[in-house]
Amino acid sequence: MTESGMAREVESVNHTWIVVGSDGEAGVALDVLGASSDPTALVVGSRDLAEHVARSVGDVRWIDAGGIPVEAWAQAAATIVAAETPAAVIAVATPGGRAIMGAIAARLDAPLLSDVTTIRAREGGIEAERPALGGLIVETLHASTPLCVLAAPADTASPVRREAGAITAVPATPSAAVTRVKVEPSPDAGSRIAEAERVVSVGRGLGSKDSLGIVEQLVTALGAELGCSMPVADELGWVSGDRYVGWSGQHISPKLYLALGISGAPQHIAGMRNSHTIVAVNTDPNAPIFKTAHYGIVADLHQVVPELIEALGQ
Amino acid sequence: MNVVCVFKWARDPEDAWVGPDGSVTWRGAKFKPSDDDAAAIVFARELAQASGGDLVGVTIGNGDTSWAAARGAQRVVSIPDVGPNPDDAATAAALAAAVRCAGDVDVVVIGDALNHAGVAGTLGALLGIPVLVGIDDVVLDPADPGRVLASRRAGPDVETLAATPPLLLAVAAKSGEKDIPAVKDLLAARKRPISTVDAEQAGAPSQDTVAIVGSRAPETHTARIFGGATAAGDLVAELRKEGVL
Predict the structure, then answer these.
(1) What percent of chain B has pLDDT over 90?
(2) ipTM reported for the complex surpasses 0.95
(3) At A167, which helix (H) or strand (E)?
(4) What is the pTM of this model?
(5) Which residues of B fall within a CB distance of 8 Å from A75?
(6) How many Cβ contacts (< 8 angstroms) between chains A and B?
(7) Class of the domain covering B3-212
């Protein structure tokens, strides 16, 4: 770490970068930086993606990824960003974003903080905040610069500039070691949970697959999609895997998320915490889900669900 | 194909005691394997067996080093004098030093940890090998056994990537551990060779570029609880008022 690096400040217009590999990531990264930021964006993807990011960012550098996986561009992206000696680099913790940010952190010999929600300049470095211990606390960290930051995936709208930013195509060579063989619908695909305005998810508290019938009636009454926690899809097989909401499953942000019999493990919260309104039904008043939910009923879902269906019909 | 499985390199958040003001006290707080570690070693073992290679467990910190040996690792390399670090890059640097101590490696498999999303990517970069993150299935390519096919969920689709070793795979758990070793496996594991290396000897850098300067309870967010015989009706009325129904 150089002394000159220590002295840079994150607010400097040309000293923050965001890295974007898919739709929706720019809004999350800009949210971490704050409203007054004016970063440079490195887009690894299609021209359409670059144009989308340019609606929010004035200076867009674009790697035309073609059909090549984002990971294959990690070293090329690191070379481009490191050459600009940024004070901070922000990406979203998607698979591609994580591979690229790892390469950048290694190239800059910079610290890398995960799950960060905000950063701000502080004397001698950058202060960052993030939820920790499954959301039980908010941690404040002080880091030297340059700093690399990963933000949790979310559905955050990007601010729109008066004039679209400039897009500059940058030459880059991907690694030949990684290729995409195929993309095909998941064998258990079919749900539209990612786009749904309302989602009703079930956890182990469902008790048995037989109880799905009454939950599906509620799903229909709400015009919702059915979701579930990881054990319900993978261990118990009651619901198809494409409906699993969580860290390694679906990341969704519906207007209404109704969690039935879900305790609220961090792995599940990671997939739904950006929902607009969260409702939990659980027999355990101390279940962690109630720390995330806006509304709750402490009761057995088998009792509550028929009552909800009846109330919705009135 | 020689495979390294990196395991048990972080503390379990459930070992933390959080005070009302957000202060944190760690109880015991040894590094523990996670569900992702369990998923990682299953794939690591299958890759090693299918290719006729060795499986080596690699870890840092102060936990039980026989965990990987009980799940198929022929030997384990450990750097015990490395503590937890809030900086994922520093953790990755310590792990990279440990992996280098394991000898010739073709594939590194690591659990894709929720709380340390930056470790896998940085570890791969420090080792100078490509990284595939969020993987939930791995096999040797039937058409080219020198190549690995790795799959992961991509929205409603499954994306299959091909990669030629050396490479790093970050594996995300889809469930808790299913095949927990029997007592005889645990006892046998304690007889497998364990190489303990000092951090300094391994070249694991001591990095303190990040400091935790405070912790606090999150903004109060208490769910509004509806109770009594009219709870469901009251909830629906509130949701209608809010405009989400």
Answers:
(1) 62
(2) no
(3) strand A166-169
(4) 0.83
(5) 125
(6) 288
(7) alpha beta
